[in-house]
Amino acid sequence: RREEAIENGREQLARVLGLTTDTLSRWEARRQGPPCTRIGRKTFYRRAAIQEWIRSQEKAHPVRKTRGRS
Fold first, then answer.
1. How far apart (Å, rounded) are the C-alpha atoms in residues 40 and 42?
2. Cα–chain-centroid distance for residue 10?
3. What is residue 21's predicted lDDT score, i.e. its pLDDT?
4. Around 22, how many Cα atoms within 13 Å sit in the side-chain half-sphere?
5. Would strands 37-39 and 8-9 be described as parallel, antiparallel, or unpaired?
6. Residue 9's beta-bridge partner residues?
7. Which of 11, 29, 32, 31 is nearest to 20 (CA)?
8. Please, what sign has the CA dihedral across residues 69, 31, 25, 23?
9. Sheet harboring 37-39: ordered strands across?
10. Comparing 34 with 69, which gets the higher pLDDT?
11. 9: which residues sit within 8 A by CB, 6+ positions away?
12. How far, in Å, CA of 60 to CA of 32, rounded?
């Protein structure tokens, strides 16, 4: 079977996850979000990569960061 086509652009993924495209851009720069592929100026995400990234987030234990005064 041929690998699933790259189909989810940044705008589409942002809508699905309830995030802004700016957040996805920031995550990409920090290598925090789902793996992506850049073609020219466009960013694409494979469905399988998104699903695996979401699974990895489910397994991670959330760490509460404190802000402000201690």
1. 6
2. 9
3. 94
4. 0
5. unpaired
6. 44
7. 11
8. negative
9. 8-9, 42-45, 37-39
10. 34
11. 42, 43, 44, 45
12. 13
Structure tokens at 18: 């309830």
pLDDT digits (tens, 9 = 90+) for 6-35: 567 899 999 999 999 999 999 999 999 999
User: What whole-number distance in Å separates Cα of residue 44 and Cα of residue 11?
Assistant: 10
Q: What is the pLDDT of residue 57?
A: 87
Q: Which two tokens stand for residue 5?
A: 């086509």
Is residue 49 very low, low, confident or very high in pLDDT (cuts 50, 70, 90)? very high
d(CA 22, CA 11): 10
HSE (side-chain half, CA atoms, 13 Å) at 30: 8
Amino acid identity at 7: E
Residue 38, helix vs strand vs coil: strand
